[in-house]
Amino acid sequence: MSRSLLLSACLLVPALAEAQSVPNPAPRAAAAVTVTGRVVDQSTQQPVPGVTLLFPDLKQGTATDTDGRFSFQNLPRGRFLVQIRSLGYGTLVRTVDTGSGQPLDFALSPAVTELGQVVVTGVSASTELRRSPVPTTVLDKDELNQHASSNVIDAIAHTPGVSQITTGAAISKPVIRGLSSNRVITLNNGAKQEGQQWGDEHGIEIDEYSIDRAEIIKGPGSLLYGSDGMAGVVNFVAPDPVDNGRVLGSVAANYQTNNHLQGYSLMNAGNLNGFNWLVRGSGKVAGDYRNRYDGQVYNSGFQELNGSGYVGLNKSWGYSHLTVSSFNQELGLIEGARDSATGRFVQEYAVGNDAVGNRLVDRDGFRGYGLDVPRQQINHLRIGTDNNFILGQSRLTVNVGWQQNLRREFGDVLAADEPSLYFQLRTLDYAARYFLPELGGWNTTVGVSGMRQENQNLGAEFLIPAYQLFDGGVFGVTKRTFGRLDVSGGLRLDQRRITADALWLNEQEEPVPGGTPNAEQKFAAFQNTYRNWSGSLGGAFSITDDLVLKANVSRGFRAPNIAELGSNGVHEGTTRYEIGNPGLQAETSLQSDLGLSLNTEHVTFSVDGFDNRIQHFIFPRRISNVAGGDSTRVNPEDGEEYRVFLYGQSPANLYGGEVTVDLHPHPLDWLHFENSFSMVRSRRLGQSEGEKWLPFTPADRVQSELRVNFRKVPGLSAVANVYARAGLEHNFAQRRIFGAFDTETPTDAYTLVNLGAGTDFVTSKGRTVASVLLSVNNVFDVAYQNHLSRLKYTDVNNVTGRQGVFNQGRNVSLKLLVPLSFN
Description:
The chain is mostly beta strands. 3% of the residues lie in helices and 54% in strands.
């Protein structure tokens, strides 16, 4: 971070602290208080056992006993948001004064929809979702568990406005309202996940089993996180610490029939007088998936072995946790090559020590969980600290993390264990936020965040230069309630410097010092500095208790990534030779959001529209030769000739929105009929017909689901929380494509039918001993290609005339969840 930003931070924090000061401030160290209370059913006034109460900003929770009573023994004094939730009841959100000395009594009403969700992403402090003007979606653990998925992005990709770019079952990248890659910030429990985001074939290195809920911000969400949040933010949140005095665990297992996926996870967590911990180990293994047209897709399997957890203290002064996560995956890269006579998949194999041949993949080649070349290996390690200090009426959070991303690609059958590509990315990230005392109803937070990053090329091939990145920013955000109006906004200043190293190669394509005779320069050295600002201002107005109007205007920016600045080669999965442009400017966006939501005892309705105008949108464009045709270049790695594309910039406009309708006729509260429609239009302004639409824009999508939920089933005391669902997903044809230079092809419409059911098995006292969840995706085994599947562009099957590989066919998933208690 530059001296100017450091100076701004030093001046901003004390100035705002002085402006927010109050008479007779509380002592710097918060004294512990005991908070007690009771939760009852609003209609019957009977106690409700097993209710979860959580202070999100303190990471402290507890549950009610059989008489509906609860107790917190070690809370700091102050005003904090508490969330009260129980299955079958509407979630309550209240801001309470823990130092009042008065019991906290709450009354729950039977649930119609999940309205009392709390969001912690992109806000100054934990906020009730309906009071935040920024378009945000929260998916809890139950929603994630009830659907079959093969990776963490697949688990959220059916959220309205959210899609995924895929390369088979293991590689998925989030797409929010038509934007992806470096334009989406991915957070692992609030900390930026830094991998090789610039590549479409690079997935997200987060263990699906470690996630308790997902929060998705749609739109520029970079006020707290800096560059790259133009499309939005996805935060995968880990479970909160367990109740004081408890030690528990869980076992999870999943089997999926299509690719014989097996997934397992073991977890242990505890809290003994504020000393708390969580440790999790999980693994997955999957073979080749199948569909109706391709049969089994060769080399589409993957393997994972992951670990994560934390250890720390939760006391009246706050909490301090040491966190660790390790993601390790090996996966096959699908090439889709097939024999021209039979249409069967073919594989390369070594003929002796120096020759390569092709042969048909026989039946044994599809058995088991083995992987072939090309394949990819990813190892991502993160070690960090998560600290929250209560300072009287204010609060300070400090987070520092170190992460290493190793990404290796093995592509030579003659040297199957030697990586052709090998990236080593190391990142040191930091974030500090100071929550000032409330003054006149205003809740304000100021802070700094940034990172230092270094990437090295350790393989035999070179697509991007080695580089160093320094990034830092200062920000302030605030919110206040004026009667029925909730207002929030903020401002952030950022600076990013990226320095790329020169690279010279000899005739054997080996790195040599600059100036070596007969050496050719692969990458030129450069250093770029980007300074920019982000801002947001919006409000949520409760027209009535049931009707809420939201509006927000936000400005975001994104500095160019290393591939856009310094590429010189053929990127995996593309048909073009890409050259970076060090002269690129930062992208900036101005997005307007307008939403309306209605919730009654019979219907829940919401509509959200957006208009996102982007300046300096970065995009690869073709280079012409002197004759006006395609400029081409031979790739030395494979000797093939490719058309040359250079990264350039132009203005763009994305607009669209989502509509959702949930019918839940009272008193049939167990019945839900949920429907949603998502659309986005994305244009490059001032371009010709074949180039005016941005590529990889998701098709319009309609989703409908009929679901029944029963807390209890008469005559079946051993089961509880029984549900069944039937869903339909229709993806419209996508004809708005970037058709120039054969970059993108249109996609046909398709409709999928999905089913699901599940139940908890309980004891006579109501304790859950196991949960079983069954789902069937693509019931009718429809053969389809999603428009955002990169496998569409693999080779043509000359026997059938169909291009590319199709998506997964029918898949039956069975999950078993077993909670464990050790006290």
